[in-house]
Amino acid sequence: MGAPAWQSRWRSVIDNLQVVVDKEQERRLLATLCAPERATVLAFVNAHAFNMATGNAAFSQTLASADLLLRDGSGVAILCRRLGLEPGLNLNGTDFIPKLLDAYQGRRVAFWGTREPALGEAARRCQALYGVTPISTHDGFADVERYLTLAQTLQPELIVLGMGMPKQEAVAARLAASAGPCLIVCGGAVLDFIGGKVNRAPSWLRRLGAEWVYRLLMEPRRLFMRYVIGNPLFLLRTWRFSRAMPAGAIDTSQQRRQKSR
After folding, report:
1. Is 9 a domain residue?
2. Contact indicator for 162, 192 with CB cutoff of 8 Å
3. What's the whole-number mean pLDDT along residues 168-185?
């Protein structure tokens, strides 16, 4: 018998995970992302993403098909170590996307996601802090055709999607199939953070990999299922998955490239 369907979905995501091992490699990655030759999708994978992929084949396929997948959070680091993989840097979207915006200084950026007033405030702050040129803001609740039309009409160089999973990944995949050269970023709650709707955890808590605890305390009702139920489920599935996939059985995309050199 083959592996259970959810394990095959997890493996397709892990197979496409790019491990960034140090700051120099992160710098080179930023430079590459600033010069996309075609519509390029950047997504972040955390424990919640793996939990969603467990029962959602369409989402797991869309996530795994992103041009670049980066590790987000300590949960995925645990999974990597259980599989004998190097977890690399924690390049969560909340920290990495501002670096991208800074690298896109002076360029045309679209912000699609969340709702006002956080959306408009996020665009204003990004213009003031990073020097980007906001050319479009739109809430994250429209049909995908609306975003396709905006992309074709305005031709942004960078599109930041703040719609949450799984919608932003689905929208990104559709945009990638029709938009011109640009970078499309699946940003989750990043616009809420930048726009001041949601506060970040103190830096010391982030360094411990426990920002989720702070978010749960701030929004217990909305995030109860994701963290209180979801995190133990993820760890249980990690244990089961790692027993089915012995160390050395999986290489991430980055490790495969290193071996081919």
Report:
1. no
2. yes
3. 96
